[in-house]
Amino acid sequence: MQEMAKGSNVTLSALSENVGSVVVSLGWVSPSGEGDADVSVLLVGSNGTVRGDCDFYFYNNPVAADGSVQLLGKTPTETGDEDRIGFDLTAVPQDVDRMVVAASRYQDARFGELENLTVTLADAAGDPLLRFTVEDADAVSAVIFGELYRRSGEWKFRAVGQGYAAGLAGLATDFGVDIDDDAEPQDAPPDPADDEHADPVPEVEQPAPNLDGVPAPRPPADEAAVKKPAARPRTAKKKVTLPKTARKSLAENESWREARLFPVSALKSDRDRETRATSVLLSVMAQVPEFGRRLTAGFGAPAGRMETYTEVSLPHGDTPRRPDGVVRVERAGKLWTALVETKTNGNALKADQVQAYMDIAARRGYEAVITLSNDVALDGSPLVDVRIDGRRKHKVALRHLSWAEAAHQARMLLRHEGVGNRAHAWLLQELLHYLQHENSGCHGFQNMGPAWVPVRNGIEDETLCEGDPRALDVVESWERLIRQVCLGLGGELGQKVLPVRGSRGGRDPRERRSLLADRLCSQGRLQAELRIEGAPGVLAVTADLRTGRLRTSLEVPAPEQGYPLSWAKRLVRSLAEAPADLHIETLVEGDTAGPRGTLERLRPEPGDLLPKADGARITGFRLSLLKSMGSGRGSAETGFIRSVDDAVRRFYGTVAVHLDRVTDRRTPARQPVSTG
User: What pTM was estimated for this model as a whole?
Assistant: First the structure.
C-alpha cells in the first residue's frame, strides 16, 4: 500500500487494474471513545464549484441518483470505526472534474481531539492501494482529506489535508453550495397521487436534502415522534416504510396463520434451508434496488441493473462446481460478477469449497466471491483460509456477509429509511419475516463455540492458565456476539450502534485478542463498550464468569453549570420510570470512591448522592444494572447469547432512553454561521 504525503498525487490505474469502482475510507480514533465526525462529498466542475446543491452528499443526502457516489456508513475496525464511501468512477458525469472527500465535527469540537486521522483507498477487489495521514488538523472543525480528479481521461487521487476553522459551512461555501441561513421552510403541497382506498401501509415523506444551510441534526427517535419537523417543498420521491402499529387481523382466532410468500414449514434439512435462503435473498436483492445496492456496494459492485441466479453449474477440472448463487450487475455495458456460497443453521464454511470458487472466479474474470453464513467475520481472523495465486493478473475479492447483517439492512430500509414503493416494502417485509423465523436457519451468530463450557469451568475452578488457546476462541466469539448485538439494536432504533475499540492504533488484531484472552484467564471477565448515536455516554457491558453476572452501565458526565444537588435531583427525576434496582454511583475527581445506592433508596433522598468530603468535585454519575447471565453456549432462553442481548436492550430501553439526549452536536440549519 502506497503511503501518501500531503499534496502528492497518484494515478489509480498505476496501482491497480481494477479501479472502475473504489471505496474511500476515512478513519480516526477517539481517546474518550465518544468523539466522532460526519463525512461529506462534493462533486466539483471545471470552474471549481458544484454544479448545484444536489452535488453535496452527506448523511441526509447519501446516494447519487446515477450511483456515482454512495455513503456506505460506519464500519467497525480494530481501532474504532471508519466511514466508507463507494465511488463508481464509470458513472461519474463528464462535467464533473473532481470529487472532494471531507469530514466535519460539531459546533465547538475540533479534529485535534481525535487521533490517527487517515484516509485509505481500496480497489474493487478490496485491496488497499494508498493511505494518507492528516497531521496538522488541531484547531479546525472541517478537513478535506483528499480528492479524486480526472487527468487525460484517467482518475487520480490527491492527498489534500486542508482544514477549515469555519467548519462545514466555510468548506461548502468555498465550493459554491448555496447557504441561505434566512430561508424559511414552506408548507409542502398535498400529493394528488395519494389514494385513500390504497393498502394501509403508509407512505412516509422523507426529508429532502437540507441544502439551504449546514446539515440539520438528526432528531433522536424519542423526540421525532413528538416534534414534527417543519414541512419543506417536496424535492424527492416519497418513500414507503412499515406502519408504526400493526393492522388489526381479520383472522377468526390466533391459530390461523397468514399466508407467506416465502414459507418455511416445508424445510426439513440443512440443504433445503441453504437452497431456500439463497433463492429468497438473491431474488429480493434483484427486485428491490435499494436493498440489492445496499448489500453489494461495499463489495465494490457498481450501481446498475442487477440479476441473480441460483445453482449455476461452472466447469472446474473433471467435476463441475455449483455455487449456491451468482450476482451480476451491468453498468454501461460492463459486467460485475460475484459467486455466492451459503451456509445456514450454524454450519461452518468449507475452505475447499471457497477455494474452488475463488479459482473459478479468477479464471473467468469474475470480481468477487461472497460467503454468507450465521457467523460474523472479524478483522485479522478470517472465517476460511484460501490461497491466492500471486501469478494471476486478475484479482478476486473474498467478502463475507452474515445473515444478521442482511436482516439489519432490510430492517433499516423497511422501518426507518424507506423504499421506492409498496411492492418493495412488502417484499422486504416477507424477507425479514423469513430470516427471523426459527426454522429458516438464518438467525445469525448463535453459538459461543466448543471452548465456552471448558473456559467457564476453568475460571470457576481457577485452573485456566494464560496462553490457553480456548480462551482466545471465547474472546473471538464474544467479539462476534457484540457486533451482532450492535446490529440488532441499531436496526430497532434506526441509529448507528457500534462497538468501541479504543485508542489502540497500530496494534495487530491477533495480538490485541491475545491480551484480552490473558485478561479473561486472570480476571475472569469479558468486557465491551457500545457507542449509541445520540446517547450521552458509552454503554459498557461486562460479563463476570466467576460470579455469573452481567453488568450494563453508562457514565453520565456532570453538567457544566448548576449545583450538585440540582444535578442529583434532575437525574433521579429523569429516571422516574427506570427499574428500582438501578445502581447509581457518584464519580468523584481523583481516586476517592463516591456515594452509591439503588434508585429505589435514592428517590426520596437524591442528596445522598453528594459526597461528604468538603471540596470533592463531582465529574459524573455511573448508572448500572446487574442480572444473572445464561450458562449455555447457545441462544436459548437460558443461553449466554440471549442473556447478553436482553441485558443490553433492557438497559437501553429502561435507562438510557430516559436520559438527556445528545441533540446539539450539529449546528442547526438556520443558525447564523460565521465563515470568516
Answer: 0.73
